[in-house]
Amino acid sequence: xxxxxxxxxxxxxxxxxxxxxxxxxxxxxxxxxxxxxxxxxxxxxxxxxxxxxxxxxxxxxxxxxxxxxxxxxxxxxxxxxxxxxxxxxxxxxxxxxxxxxxxxxxxxxxxxxxxxxxxxxxxxxxxxxxxxxxxxxxxxxxxxxxxxxxxxxxxxxxxxxxxxxxxxxxxxxxxxxxxxxxxxxxxxxxxxxxxxxxxxxxxxxxxxxxxxxxxxxxxxxxxxxxxxxxxxxxxxxx
Length: 238
What we know:
This protein is mainly α. It is built from 8 helices and 2 strands. A two-stranded antiparallel sheet has the order 1-2. The chain starts with a helix and ends in a 5-residue tail after the last helix. 28% of the residues are buried.
């Protein structure tokens, strides 16, 4: 139908322009800080949110659809992540969980790189591009949370979550309570708040936390410098 074709073109035009970066930011914020905290970890709604999160991240990669290989790579990694999640529902296994987290981490890294490329490339600085830079910051927090999760899945004693390690030794607890808290720990570390309610216990966990804290501060300095340089070399038109 012509109307359907027009709607598809409108959606594509929206996602492939800088406005798609704002859509990505708003979607990530809603998922991370509104929807996920309100949903119980073991309900079907939580699984649907996981699927929605993958689709939102694919939309982020779609903003650089002129680079088709990146888009196809993101879709492929999302499919692998989703397939591993289905397998985990059918047959919970620690190794499968590690594969799923690793594939998600790689997927997030590719999407983050694609969005960062669009944010930093030459051109007029817009509010959408600033929003895209914030979205990259949020995705960096999720990448580090995935890295912490890999350590935690392998050895729950890598982090002190405020309760004995054996309390999260069951795979179901690792997937829900443990990994959920590590997302919180990741953002607290990246913003250098350091509340101290969750602490790294292994050498690898401690090293990752230090590197993430440095990465968070360096990213803010670099992105600010880049935006200022773009404004100076090509001021935004009124």
